[in-house]
Amino acid sequence: MDATDGAAHWTPDDLRRYGHAAVEWAARYLETLEARPVTSEVEPGWVRDQLPPSPPEAPEAFEDLLADLDRVVTPALSHWQHPGWFAYFPTGASGPSVLADLISSTLGVQGMLWSTSPAVTELETHVLDWMAELLGLPERFRSTAAGGGVIQDSASSATLCALVAARWRAAGDGPFDRLRVYTSGQAHSSVEKAVRVAGLHPDQLRLVDVDDAFAARPEHLAELMAADAAAGLVPTLVVANLGTTSSTALDPVGAMADVAAEHGAWLHVDGAHAGAHLLLPELRWIADGLDRADSFCMNPHKRLLTNFDCDCFWVADRQPLVAALSVLPEYLRNAATESGAVIDYRDWQIPLGRRFRALKLWFVIRSYGAEGLRRHVRHQTALAQDLAARIAAHPRLELSAPHPLDLVCFHHVDGDEASEALLTRLNATGRVFLTHTRLDGRFVLRVAVGTQATEARHVDALWALIDELA
Ligand code: PLP
């Protein structure tokens, strides 16, 4: 310990010693994960009951902190990296990403301006261009054209930024009451939240009908927009869902782009989860028409082995985004910004401060290589397809929706009660964890394949349980 200013700062040697212990703890956690129940069984308040009511007055030993992870924390965790985790959508993690985050924390830099750490900005721009290439995104999203990419904390923030940019393009500083936003009733709740946060009334959001596959009907979008335009309102933003949260339904991006273009509205494509599948050339058809979108986002922190938080957000034209979000106080003025030759990412997001998040994406891409990332997504998508085929052939189960990617939705033929009971029984085994949704009013079980540890044998084990308990 180094106590030059009276505080017990760690020396680099302390960091080395305790860092080894922390990494050892992390490796042991992963080694023992499969043997643990997937979710926690603690009662509300249990965690707080384990903790002292007041903070410690004197410094505590690091060993005691690690010991409390086992005593207080892990018993009360849902183990998102467990190979039996099939709930929600997976949250990405991998060794290279974890260590890059450790280094990012060690550096402790803020990348709000290019000048506050050029490497943070330039690495981010470069890695987002790499991602655009890996996903086969249109040229217009590259930083070398009028657009470019940025890392947001989440897809929710990407949608909010798209709305704020579209709002600016449609109405500058306001008023905003005539602006209208469109998305399907299957869209993620973050679209409605963005509408509220951006200061629009909830009625300014129009819900587009969906077809039998739960994808937006472009004819209905066209009707809604035409009626609004005829009433003197301003169609401002269309959010197309590239993989809805409930069932990975795929909105027809091209047809929606045509309708949006007729009214000069901004088209944002939300590929939070499913966007990672664009890595696979054989699946690029899912985003036909993306070359006419104004913005697109996908989350490496869901399907691409990168720890939360990491959402990649691209715009075809950075000008409206920067115009909407740039506020330059005196204390941030600097020569590089004034030169106009650099990107200041604080103008591409809501907060000012920003972590060095590109580091983990850079580590992941380089450690796996494009080939390794494709193999990961392709393999687990094939596992989901295999599971879907088994469900389709089962006498007491039915598929509830198309399953183009890595998510399978199904229900029991005996109805909602039987489906709900099946979910409860599956989760009660402690070996797997699934969640549910409602499609067409029906209770539906969801199986999302995709943690770093999930292999064929885990999906086989899940199937054995489903078959036994259905
Ligand atoms: N959009 C879709 C389609 C999603 O599935 C999700 C989350 O599952 C989100 C947005 C929100 O993602 P985030 O947690 O990154 O805000």
Number of strands: 11
In whole angstroms, the N-to-C terminal distance is: 59 Å
Q: Which architecture of the largest domain would the CATH scheme give at its second level?
A: 3-Layer(aba) Sandwich
The CATH first-level class of the largest domain comes to Alpha Beta
Characterize the structure shown.
There is one protein chain. The chain is 41% helix and 12% strand. A seven-stranded mixed β-sheet has the order 1-7-6-5-4-2-3, sandwiched between helices. A four-stranded antiparallel β-sheet has the order 8-9-11-10. The protein is an alpha/beta fold. It has three domains: 12-31 and 40-77, dopa decarboxylase, N-terminal domain; 109-354, 3-Layer(aba) Sandwich (Aspartate Aminotransferase, domain 2), CATH 3.40.640; 369-469, Aspartate Aminotransferase, domain 1. Helix 9 (253-262) links the parallel strand 4 and strand 5. It has helices spanning 12-32, 46-49, 62-73, 95-107, 118-134, 155-171, 189-197, 218-230, 253-262, 300-303, 318-325, 335-339, 358-392, 416-428, 456-469, and strands at residues 148-152, 179-184, 205-208, 234-241, 266-270, 295-298, 311-315, 397-399, 407-412, 435-439, 442-448. Pyridoxal-5'-phosphate (PLP) binds next to helix 6.
